[in-house]
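As a representative case, the lines below give one protein's residues and fold tokens.
***
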Amino acid sequence: VGTLDAAAIERVRDEERPDPRDADELHDALLTTGFLLEDEVDRDLFAVLECGGRATAFGCVFAAAERLPELQAIHDIAVTIKSPPSRAAKPWTREQAIIEILRGRLAIAGPTTAKQLADSLAIEEREANHALIALESEGVVLRGTFSAPNEWCDRRLLARIHRYTLNRLRAEIEPVTASDFTRFLFAWQHATPSSRLTGIDGLRAIVAQLDGFEVAASAWERAVLPQRIDRYDASMLDTLSFAGEVGWARLSASATMPVAATPIALFLRENADAWQAMRSPEELVLSDNARRALELLQSRGASFSRDIADDVAIAELVSAGLVASDGFAGLRALIGSAKDARFSGRWSLLRTEMSRDDAVELQARALLRRYGVVFRRLLTREANAAPWRELARVYRRLEARGEIRGGRFVTGMSGEQFALPDAVEHLREVRREPHDGRVVVISAADPLNLAGILTTGERVRAVATNRIAYRDGIAISAMEGDYLRPLHEDGETFDVAAALAGRRVPVAAGFVGRTA
């Protein structure tokens, strides 16, 4: 359970604090709670009970006659009233009596410590601890750090405090517009010039963020990674691949030959099992050569391409999502962006032994790293995502632990929304930042292509050769092949056309041609 709101704790204590209107209600409270302290009792109402032999006081403790057998098992006290025969007939050990009395006390105390409970009942702290452990084994109380270390709280009260805390946290969040959220995403994913990362460590951070997202094979090194890494070089990805930190594979398998547009995912190798576990178990029809290559890898294990001696069969197995190489050079050779596959390393089978539940939780965390804020509509382009109902169960559990926040973060998006705490703070900063009017161009294959998903306009096909221009979080124009299509009233300008085409062009819309 995450940190609880102090106001929520006091609210629940106030709700549970006895507030009797007459002597009968005070008697009920004394029965339920085991005992009350001097500052918790209305003396006039208590006098009525005392005169009727229904309650008594000793020291600072006020108790109903029915609870005297337990209290007398704890303390050697002499009283002038008697407990009803039905209650007096049951024998109590000191240990049993402390457990039952503290059970009632915890029902109104809220988060408290063993020492506080022991002091209220005038017993030793170790005795209170033993009683609390017994109640914990029954599932009555929980222990943890609620308002201070080493506290105990009635499970029912804790659930209510937690609910009030979540309601307060959700209410304090002011949602941002879709355009501000897009501005946030560009900075969150390091896709703007000022937020780009550098070096191999930066590349590893980017792969961790885009973990499991499938992009057209050729777009990774032509557009997606250079968009996020300053002075990106292919050797960086090779270094991480051969170091065993980063892997690649096709996750949405299909029995076709790999080409530049074939969807390929990059992921941290430690997460490879999770993404494989999410694949649908459909049976793929393989050629005889591909089947022989598969059997060779099954019998020999990881092998070099010269040992397999059939690049076409390897390509078919890659497209089927069954094999991958140590290095990214193997994929470059298959899609024609490199001439020699000898530097691809070994080819090996892709297997997984991870359970689906574990895989869904890992994927849920990966999506949070990718977007900072997640909701159902945002995952439209996540081809390998688990159903939202499964992800939402994980997010609700993480919210209950205090690891993430739930609430309304982006306006106009229906359903539940969840966010990392850092993302919430970053959203606030983005809202306060003035718009700079700068045009940012991305590949349509980029994960940030959310045109027509976060907004009501038309979508742009996620093809590596298409480009989209954004200004202040709004998709304003798209270059699709040789055609410039404005997406917003601000998109039909020559500076936007030049940014998309990579050169000055004679028109701001229509067929313009461009250089790649």
